[in-house]
Known about the structure:
By secondary structure, the chain is of the alpha+beta class. The protein contains four helices and five strands. The chain has helices spanning 11-21, 23-29, 32-39, 44-62; strands at residues 2-10, 75-79, 85-89, 97-104, 108-116. Residues 121-125 have low confidence and may be disordered.
Amino acid sequence: MAEVGVDIVDVSRIRSIYDRFGQAFMKKILTDAEAAQCLSKPDPAASLAGRFAAKEAVSKALGTGIAKGLGWRSIEVLNNEAGKPCVSIHAPNFSGRVSLSISHDRHSAVAMALYEEGEARKEVD
């Protein structure tokens, strides 16, 4: 069975939160590796908004939401060498595969996640 989750975020809202709370906001939402990838981008706030939308979309696809045992940092979204966003779920008893697409411009970030139940399959890069 497959489940889909979608989220859209206003980049200016995330930029405002980041400008106000800085690293404290990033540490609440992102793993250290995710933060490093966001900060390496030309527009870190847009990248942060994309990650935020991605984590929301993944939590919706899983049917858990962020507040029900799956924290922000339990969902890790890192780009592979080709730039493709790859999801790792750091939670006990998780099995399955999550595919993810993220897009953003100056105004909005959108993410779509597809969760497939069962054993994780090896990615082919």
